[in-house]
Amino acid sequence: MRPRLSRRAGRRRPRLWVVAVVAVGLMGFLYYRPVKEYISTRHELTQRRAEVHALAREKATLERRLAASGTSEALIEEARRLGYVRPGEELFIVTGVKQWLRAHRAGTKP
After folding, report:
1. How far apart are CA 28 and CA 20, in angstroms?
2. Cβ contact 75:69 at 8 Å
3. CA-to-CA distance for 45 and 51, rounded, in angstroms?
């Protein structure tokens, strides 16, 4: 004969496992959203840091260009780009360069 205490102990173990599995499942369910938000926020933070780094590089480049633009060489170069000429110089406007290049390339190729 078996004692009754043994049967009860045998029945409680499956219940204990069920309670433990349900508790772990509930904890996982409750932690899912915060963990997901944490990972998403961390990813966004990494992207923002990369963007800030790129903007800092661009700012440094622009600051160098600004410092260089104060020189007379940069001013002359920009004026030439805009089409200004010095007094006494003659301005020549050349048109049809693209058509000439196409014709020239077509004539030189075998």
Report:
1. 12
2. yes
3. 10
Residue 28, domain extent = 4-108
Structure tokens at 99: 């058509």
Indicate the number of domains in the chain.
Answer: 1
Q: How far is CA 57 from CA 47, 62, 70, in A?
A: 16, 9, 21
Q: Residue 88 has which token pair?
A: 């006494």
Gyration radius (Cα) of the chain, Å: 39
68 within 8 A of 74, measured Cβ to Cβ = yes
- Residue 67 to residue 32: CA distance in whole angstroms: 52
Token digits of residue 95: 């048109």
Digit-by-digit pLDDT tens for the chain (110 residues) are: 555 555 555 556 778 888 889 999 998 888 888 889 999 999 999 999 999 999 999 999 999 888 877 778 888 888 888 888 888 888 888 899 999 998 888 776 54
Token readout for 6 is 């043994």
